[in-house]
Amino acid sequence: MPTTTANNLTLHYDEHGDPSHPPLLLVMGLGAQMTLWPMELVEALVERGFRVIRFDNRDVGLSEKLDGAKAPGIVCHILFRRIGLRPKVPYTLEDMAADGAALLDSLGIERAHVVGASMGGMIAQLMAIHYSDKLLSVTSIMSTTGNAKLPQADKAAMKALTTPSPSMEEDALVENGIRISNAIGSPGYRPDPERQRERVRESVRRSVYPEGMVRQMAAIIDDGDRRARLKDVRVPALVLHGEDDPLVKLAGGQDTAAAIPGAVLKTFPGWGHDLPMELVDEIADAIANHAFAADPAAPA
């Protein structure tokens, strides 16, 4: 299992495709391992001519954990941010964006297409803000700007995401993962139950580390509203969003596209907060076409 040192952390990653092809970095979301990027999507991007790199963010999966680091409570943290105060957090989203940039450096990659989902979209946005010289293009998927005035997540979706498993036994963790998946997933593309259970069990067996999700959530809250910063982005930007996302509402994608100069917004009916098999080819096509337009050296 390949690892590298990036930003003074050990990060786990994998690569797929021809190393000579344009690199495309996938950045996953809150508390999610890199394996949540389905291999079907990875393979679709490889088929379209990319060197695809996935990695576990800090504090999740097989990457380095910040054991013992304390994060402020979510409710108090949100209230403090609303009155302009910033409690100390273990690390920031900008630190996580630096992780992604350092990973590219460690792999000898000068510039890459960066694609982020959910919190990973926030990280990708920050990479476009702070490391534009390293990005050929940026794609923000089912993400948002941090604008507190946008519609909030459905209560059922947020409750599912934030309610801990009643036990750390494997079967309980699997049932909890399925519960979350069903609560935030695509109403128009329900997963095959057997495949869903298999994927969740594989994830549980790979790694379970709920403490990291708490610290990552603190980083999200701490980052606040990115709209003013996004106005300075000059990296070609694509925003993909589901029209039926119960966790990060469509308005989050619309706000992201409005904040980034020249950004293109593409939405899909029936798509929620997941990566359904039925949309793999459409998502891969959208990402690839955006990359072709942004980088003349990309495969045609």
CATH class: Alpha Beta
CATH architecture: 3-Layer(aba) Sandwich
Kindly, what is the distance between the CA atoms of the first and last residues, rounded to a whole number of angstroms? 31 Å
Strand elements, count: 8
Based on CA atoms alone, the radius of gyration comes out at 18 Å
* CATH fold descriptor: Rossmann fold
The helical percent reads 40-55%
The residue ranges in which pLDDT falls below 50 over 5 or more consecutive positions are: none
CATH evolutionary superfamily: Alpha/Beta hydrolase fold, catalytic domain
Kindly give the count of domains: 1
Query: In percent terms, what proportion of residues is strand?
Result: 15-25%
Indicate the mean pLDDT. Answer: 96
Number of alpha- plus pi-helical segments: 11
Provide a brief overview of the structure.
Helix content is 41%, strand content 15%.
Overview of the molecule:
The chain has 300 residues and is of the alpha/beta class. It has one domain (3-147, 210-294): Alpha/Beta hydrolase fold, catalytic domain (Rossmann fold), CATH 3.40.50. The chain is built from eleven helices and eight strands. The protein has helices at 39-47, 74-82, 93-106, 119-130, 155-162, 170-184, 193-206, 210-223, 227-230, 250-259, 280-294; strands at 3-6, 9-16, 23-27, 51-55, 112-117, 135-141, 237-242, 264-268. An eight-stranded mixed sheet has the order 1-2-4-3-5-6-7-8, sandwiched between helices. Helix 4 links the parallel strand 5 (112-117) and strand 6. The radius of gyration is 18 Å and the shape is globular.
